[in-house]
Write a structure and sequence with these properties.
heterodimer, A: mainly alpha, two-stranded antiparallel sheet, two-stranded antiparallel ribbon, 4 strands, B: mainly alpha, 12 helices
Chain lengths: 358, 309
Amino acid sequence: MIYRENGQFKTSYAADQQIFPILQDRWAILGILVFAFVAVPLLADEYMFRAILIPFLILSLAALGVNLLVGYCGQITLGAGAFMAVGAYAAYNFFIRVDGMPLIGALLLGGFTSAAVGVVFGVPSLRVRGLYLAVATLAAQFFWDWAFLRIKWFTNYSSSGSVSVSNLSLFGFPVESPTEKYLFCLAVLVVFALLAKNMTRGAIGRQWMAIRDMDVAAEVIGIRPMYAKLSAFAVSSFFLGVAGGLWGFVHLGAWEPAAFSLDRSFQLLFMVIIGGLGSIMGSFFGAAFIVILPIFLNQMLPWLGDLVGVSISTAGVSHAEIMIFGALIVFFLIVEPHGIARLWSTAKEKLRLWPFPH
Amino acid sequence: MGFFLEVLIGGLMTGMLYSLVALGFVLIFKASGVFNFAQGAMVLFAALAMARFSEWIPGWLGVDNLMVANILAFIIAAFLMFVVAWLIERLVLRHLVNQEGATLLMATLGIAYFIDGLGQTVFGSDIYKIDVGMPKEPVMVLQGVFEGGLLINKEDFIAALVAAMLVAALALFFQKTATGRALRAVADDHQAAQSIGIPLNRIWVIVWCVAGVVALVAGIIWGSKMGVQFSLVTVALRALPVVILGGLTSVPGAIIGGLIIGVGEKVSEVYLGPLVGGGIEIWFAYMLALVFLLFRPQGLFGEKIIDRV
């Protein structure tokens, strides 16, 4: 009754091709944006910003990047964390080595460095595919883990191996308090999400999807696999690099290579698969799920333990946490292998008929 | 020359241990097309079970014989691995038939998390040791041939022997028994195998059980080498380049790949490592595998990939 496109006639190509062709969607998105930019900073407290909102925003950005590569171009990668690390450390080096480098400039340059590295590590995708490629991308992960640990130049010869940045500012405005950090990340995310959405709607996105569906057939109809695959690697790594820079600069402040370990790569892949492969919306769902679930379990388990009269030790909680996390992932994959995005679109179909299904 | 040979032999023996872990991957991938990321977790779980039961059994039964305790622990751990295999097939794989490779991969990652958590909840998360009576002291051989002879680690040598025996046993099992033939049939073509009356589900349980036992043997050997602790799961990550180098579907590939990676790792660490700061073993193995892949995308012994539109 409410969510229905009846009567919304398109009279121009522009109207027909817009991102959200349904009026209700446009209002909903606008509502969410207003809520995120205005209401959330007023409502949320500091813990909420630090533990949930900022990680969620940054990891959504990273998940977007992974989804472009895995979901749209069909190249499985297990090295996403490495590209975040490259972005973070490149941004760090630009930031401290170049005088007067603005924050946004450092982040973008970090992203471009990561994109270049991504192209190099994407070259094997021209020869191998599927699970062989997934394992091959692990090479990137282990190589960069090692490089940032052992090559001291990257960490500016800091004795502990951890690097830190401070006094962040954007066009003269400080990015220091949790609210400012949140707004900054949100703004970056909105711009990049729009970019991703438009890219997947355009020629390049269609090339990626053709390659994903069947690369030989795509080649036959005149798509250059090399260009399509490497551009997917470049764009994905760019997103990941910027996300890595944000993660280091804005979320952590001081970090070491372990912040971008293999677990991070797995986590990002979980996000896109649980959220939904080949769906921009899905990246957000997946990020929300993976960010909130451990926090939720962490809070819930001791409480549940108290309820039945068993006190669980901290180690016990962390073990039970990964156990339940693993079980939930498997459960989720069995129940809905196409991810939350599929649930969402099913719900939308239902909503169109509601409350009078035939 | 003597030193180089020492490094070479050390590499070969480490490589044999890698192939032991790699075998687990290959077995499961061959039979069910699942790339089992949980193999590392299974190795840890099996090793933990082995270590803890051999510790507990003397207390329970009152026998003080290390041998008896170890054998009993081995039997119990093997049984546990059977249960784990059966549960994985029953609860997870059966519901994920015909899903995409990436989804299956993620499912096994989920299983890996679960088994990691379960193992450490049940058996504890300290460092334990497995004592199966392997000799620790190195021996000198071929003293007449080289200046100073070759220093060989007896423990590694025995481990390599065990690995080789296990591989031979598996090869026999695959080639000579009815079950082995059924396994190969399933690996070739699921549908055809099913149509001539081979029960897929049972075959999958068997394969996971065999992989579980392989994990147990690998767990015991690695566990007695470096102690049973959480870092044992990384052994699986080091075996991954072996698998893709040898080919995901080839048992001999796992062996040859293991030897190549083992030697490559050791030689690079000894001769190249000091130049760039050391610790290059792990990524060097991956790079080595990558270079091979560029020339043979299906691995050394993998089935040729044929593209049809």
